[in-house]
Amino acid sequence: MNRSPDSFDELAEAYDRSADELAFRRDIEIPSLLEALGNLEGRRVLDLGCGPGLHSRLLAGAGAKVTGTDASPGMIALARRREAENPLGIDYHLQDAGTTEPPGRDYDTVLAVYVLPYAPTPRVLTAMCRTARTALSRHGGRLVAAALNPDFATAPGYYRPHGFEITAHRPDDPDRTPVTDPRDGDGIALRTWMGDLVFDVAAHYWSRATHEAALHTAGFTDPTWTVPTAGPGADRTALAGYLTVPHAIILTAHTPPA
User: Fold this and answer.
1) What is d(CA 167, CA 186) in angstroms, rounded to the nearest whole number?
2) Would you tell me how many other CB atoms lie within 10 Å of the CB of residue 157?
């Protein structure tokens, strides 16, 4: 019998475990993000929407000086607890990416994994991008984001073999009837299975044009969309369906030197 997480900690633990247990995360998402980030040795990185610190710890392990922010008190508490247990020099701050200033303005890179889909309006999407822009050094920097793929597969059950399902629905539909032609502002429902655990996430759909408009308004240039690829050791046959139409995509943008 499936069940929902009994506590916040169990949910956060499940999210972290998913990076090992779900092949698309372990063998596609994380290698693709690290490849997009490039050499991190000595770089200052802001992990915007860091959650329990999964990616923050990966970045620190690759030589970066990392600061993490998240709007969830529970997530930040768990991230700080893990930092205390295994110190990597990461600073964590309780901050909302869409409403507060970043902790500093001299970062080389901002990482935002599954942050932009939480913007409920184009205004908030732009505010999130502006927070990232404000955090970057006046010498120039980069935003690397894992965003919802605007062209994700809408066929029922397409991603089920990979441990999750994702559907779009009109924001004014109380029944959340799945649609195959998602539009800006539509609701997104993501359900993930891990063993007997099932957890649900609600987000929002934004087109490529809306993402790029938000980035340009915030002061970024050259937005680039990169389809994630399988890392070394991945079972490409098992992941073929996901690789053909991934639900997430890497979005990068730059800021010119002041």
Assistant:
1) 10
2) 8
For the chain, give the percent of residues with pLDDT over 70. 96
Give the CATH number of the domain where residue 102 resides. Answer: 3.40.50.150
Alpha-carbon distance of 129 to 136, in angstroms, equals: 11
Please report whether residue 191 resides in a domain.
no
pTM of the model: 0.94
pLDDT in tens, 47-63: 999 999 999 999 999 99
SS3 assignment, position 140: coil
- Structural domain boundaries, residue 246: 8-151+205-255
SS3 state at 93: strand
Q: Is residue 177, in this structure, part of any structural domain at all?
A: no
Q: Residue 195: CB partners within 8 Å, gap ≥ 6?
A: none
Among residues 126, 117, 145, 129, the alpha carbon closest in space to that of 252 is found at: 145
Q: Which long-range contacts (CB under 8 A, 24 or more apart) does 170-173 make?
A: none
**pLDDT 10s digits, 19-31:** 889 999 999 999 9
Q: Are the C-beta atoms of 119 and 217 separated by less than 8 Å?
A: no
Asked if the structure places residue 162 within a domain, the reply is no
Query: Cβ distance 45 to 136 under 8 Å?
Result: no
The total domain count for the chain is 1
158 domain-assigned: no
Query: Residues 187, 121: contact at Cβ < 8 Å?
Result: no
